[in-house]
Amino acid sequence: MNAPKLMRYLLIGVAAIIVLAPQAAASQGPPDASTLNPPPFPFMSCKRVGTGTNCDGERTIHEDNVDTGITCGSGPTAFNPVDQSFADERFSFTYDGAGDLTRVTVHTRWYSAQWINLESGTTLPYTQEDNFDFALAVPGDFGSATEIHTGQSRFKPSDGPPIFITAGRTVTAPDGTVEFRAGPQSFLDLFVDGDTSVLEPLCAALQ
Fold it and tell me: Is residue 200 within 8 Å of 189, Cβ to Cβ?
């Protein structure tokens, strides 16, 4: 998942599960997902595990000409690459005995993925796989979550070696501060450190 896509994913995902629901009531039967705080996604199924609840689910998504948030060049020759891709996503939510969310894990694998310069028709394929682990310091409050991310994203023209790599591990605090980073992190170099030079090989390949 490229970083602009990652940012969209996190914003949409957090917004989708941030709506609070009433606390879960004690019951010996199957859990009522609508009482979990916040509730799981509609495509997830839930079961009781010990005194808590686990919810799991999978889905496939498709992005078609989605803005990457990247601008290549300036003036009349500038262009904005778009993203075309598919992704298989697997989610797991863990709730405590009160029905409050304590942990979220997400695994995403992108395929048939490419950036496109719509003006020239030039494409740049990439592969991407992401693993997210969100631990909530305050049960039910996603704003208290510390995020651990591992994965890789590699942009590689069809006739050469990779020209852009993000791979390794990052730890991000609830306030968005990156507390730890390991491995080449080109998108963090761009969006956190402001190093726009990392875009040069991408933009050149998309001319």
Answer: no
Instruction: Kindly list the strands in the beta sheet with 45-49, ordered across the sheet, starting from the edge strand earlier in the chain.
Output: 45-49, 52-67, 82-95, 101-117, 122-136, 145-155, 164-172, 178-182
Domain spans, the chain = 3-205
Residue ranges in the chain modelled with pLDDT below 70: 1-30
CA dist., res. 102 & res. 168, Å (int): 25
List pLDDT tens digits, range 34-85: 899 999 999 999 999 999 999 999 999 999 999 998 999 999 999 999 999 9
**pLDDT for residue 195:** 87
The 8 Å CB, 24+ separation contacts for 70-75 are: 70/4, 70/199, 70/202, 70/203, 72/117, 72/199, 72/202, 72/203, 72/206, 73/203
69 Cβ contact list (under 8 Å, min separation 6): 4, 7
CA distance between the termini of the chain: 22
Tell me if residue 88 falls in helix, strand or coil.
strand
pTM over 0.85: no
d(CA 37, CA 165): 37
